[in-house]
Amino acid sequence: MERKNSEAGPSNNPLKVPAASFPTHNSPRVWFLTSALSPLSVRLIRLLLKHGDYVAAGLPPKEIEDDERCLEFKELINDCNSNKKQCEGWKDRIRGIKVDGRAKSQCLAAIAEAIKVFGRIDILMCCSSEAVVGTVEELSTNPATRSLVRDQFETIYFNQVNFIKSALPHLREKRDGHILILTGITGHIGTPGMSMYCAATWALEGFCDALTYEVAPFNIKITIVQPNKEIQLLTNRITFAPQLPQYETQNNPAPQIRDILAHVLNSHPDTRIDPQNDKYSIESVFPILPGESKDKLVMETVHALTAIGGHENPPARHIVGYEGIASVKEKLKIVSEEMEDFVEVSCAVDIYTKSAVSQAALAKPRSQRKRSVSIERRDSNNEGKIAQLEKRITMPEDGINRLGNSQSRNDGLRKSRGRGSRGGKGRGSQGGSH
Hints:
- Helix 4 packs parallel to helix 5.
- The protein contains 15 helices and twelve strands.
- The chain has helices at 39-51, 61-64, 67-80, 104-118, 143-174, 195-215, 229-233, 254-265, 275-278, 291-308, 322-341, 343-347, 354-361, 382-391, 406-416; strands spanning 5-7, 16-18, 30-33, 54-59, 94-98, 123-126, 131-133, 177-182, 220-226, 238-240, 283-285, 317-319.
């Protein structure tokens, strides 16, 4: 497909990237972004306005106070109010709404304001995020660190849930709508040193999985978009809990994510993390990256969101990027192999004949079985549509180095459980504790 180039970054540091793809629709859509100040959100808004859509931009009060955090959004507003030909009409199609997602009343008011201004909401994009870095034990040493656990769930879980609850009556009444949830592959794979971040993400995704079935009769679709973890980490606030020396051993993977993030933050003088203070105090900072690095980091996810948002038959989950797909596949493979190893033990609690147990053990992989449709709106050729959809998502050729190595972490998990490749070696050891 031939694509034209478009400018997706701030005007002071432009980077030419392929134009975004959008689903076919008859009229402009109205988007509501729960957090519009992140580099990803600003670039998404620019593409939406250029496409002709309307945007209600949620502005979290805690983030408005940070001048550096607001810089790109202010540049966007200046462009909207300018006489630039490419920005003509933008100022009439964007509305900034100050809202703290942790307060349900403010979410209700923000949704009501967006509906009053634009007449409706078609796509609700839940994109609020903040990462708390620390092990389970490091986040339970004193009242201050324990409060970080609640803050983590307030930002990632309760914040998004409040917006969803506030928008549901409107979407249900109009019997149409799409809810996009931006999380990460941490919704599939646990990351040492980010236990509470993973826990809050899994809670949100579990909530959305159940909600999908509840709202399907009202033609409301829900899609969880999972980019690599650095997308959300490096574009939102990062809070470091004090380190415990017991976890600083060479063979412990917990400090790895802390060290990598500290290395990135220390590359900018305004976000440097003092290694000594990091061990005794709580530090919180918004990463500052060069404009071109931000574009390379987030644009593949931005293009995924534009291609999926408002789609007639969107996927329930969409993983962005090859590395994320490979990591999740490997994790699912490990889970599947462990289930196969203990299928007889699992079936032992049920009253089945021996032949039924054997059938369970020899069951064909899901890819070889007839696909069952559990929600009426998903038709039999859904997989083909998703494949076509993914082809329209353009990814930049280059990107910043990925944080950590998910493949090696899966290999370590396999090794720690005594499981090698299943090719010709039979089952792994069953002698460990489970």
